[in-house]
Amino acid sequence: MAGEKPNYIADVRKDGRLSAPSAARNMDPILSAIAPYVPTGGVALEIASGTGEHAVAFAGAFPDTVWQPTDIDAARLISIDAWRARKGMMNMRVAQRLDATAPSWRTGPFDLAVTVNLMHLIDQTAAQAVVRGVARNLLPGGHWFLYGPFRSQGLFRSDSDLSFHTALTEDDPAIGYKDIEAVEAWAQDAGLTRAALIEMPANNLVLVMRQSDR
């Protein structure tokens, strides 16, 4: 679903676990920001779980919620399950292969969807497919927690954001930062409404969208 980030460093362990430095850096702020939206007793879907480090952190921090990690990459699916086994997370399901950029994907339904650091790594058509898929698979009253770097009204939030975007587009001109306003508009067109827009460290944002109570 998503290509590797420039300078992505993965530590491959003997049991197949991968480790990304960025996961440790943003873990605590994400756990704090997501806490009000995690459904007690519900089921949460993580899209593009990557190494699995966030998935085991979610499962550990919110033990009353069942967590379903997903990814499209075989090595990452192995890593997710290896982290699950290593941490002994009983409220975390076996990783599921999911291409959330597919036009009409279905899985779930879920009370919460979580997406961390994906939208800038895929093109606009794929990003819109993710948005529509989330809306299609969220239960009434459910939330989508979307974290990552974004532009706002076409402007970058820092020089480092511009540099990162430039590095991304040099590798693949179709990908790169999305305007947060555009992502919200796509979500609204799919039937979601904004619940919160949260400032995060390192100029990242969290957009929380809510499914209607239909």
Mean pLDDT, rounded to whole units? 93
The helix content is 25-40%
Q: How many beta-strand segments?
A: 7
Beta fraction of the residues? 15-25%
Strand order of the largest sheet: 3-2-1-4-5-7-6
Which structural class best describes the helix and strand composition? alpha/beta
Element order, helices and strands? HEHEHEEHEHHEE
The residue ranges in which pLDDT falls below 50 over 5 or more consecutive positions are 1-9
What is the count of helical runs?
A: 6
Largest sheet: 7 strands, mixed
Rounded Rg: 16 Å
Overall, the morphology is globular
Architecture overview:
- With 214 residues, the protein is of the alpha/beta class.
- The chain has helices at 21-34, 53-61, 74-87, 124-137, 159-171, 180-189; strands at 43-47, 66-71, 96-97, 110-116, 138-148, 192-199, 205-211.
- Strand 2 (66-71), helix 3 and strand 3 form a beta-alpha-beta unit.
- The longest helix is centred in the first third of the chain and has 14 residues, at 21-34.
- It is globular.
- The relative contact order is 0.16.
Question: What's the layout of helices and strands?
Answer:
Elements: H1 21-34, E1 43-47, H2 53-61, E2 66-71, H3 74-87, E3 96-97, E4 110-116, H4 124-137, E5 138-148, H5 159-171, H6 180-189, E6 192-199, E7 205-211
Parallel strand pairs: 1-2, 1-4, 2-3, 4-5
Antiparallel strand pairs: 5-7, 6-7
Helix pairs in contact: 1-2
